[in-house]
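Hello again, I could really use a second opinion on something today. For a while now I've been wondering how a particular protein folds. Please have a think about how the structure follows from the sequence. Here's the protein in full, and shout if anything looks odd to you:

***
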Amino acid sequence: MKRLGIDLGARRIGVAVHAEEGVPARPLETLELPEANQAVNAVTAVVKREAADEVVVGLPLNMDGSEGMKARAARTFAALLGRKAKVPVILWDERLSTVQAQRARTASGRKGREGIDAEVAAILLQAYLDSKTGAGAWLDDPDP
């Protein structure tokens, strides 16, 4: 099953892909949108081009787990994308994924923000995949 991960922003959308079991999700591209209302059409085109079977959209929850305006916008985007692209769309908690991507960049000596949106999409997509396979489940078990 081929999956896309989406990190939704107002002007940039990070896209990641996972197509092969045992191979981590990887950044695919960053879509630059001159107008925010182009997001659904732009991502639908990528879904079709990549022949994706499922899409995972980052849900930007507040640190306490509550939903703000951005989370509500992500829910609306996901619903519209599912209808237009005709694929299942899953919302996935993306808290701290940007921080994780920034730390990885710093550790590898990379600077700037170019490409970070797609990296964030890969992180959230991989977290979703790990949850489905049980990878990382030991973190919740006090006696692994």
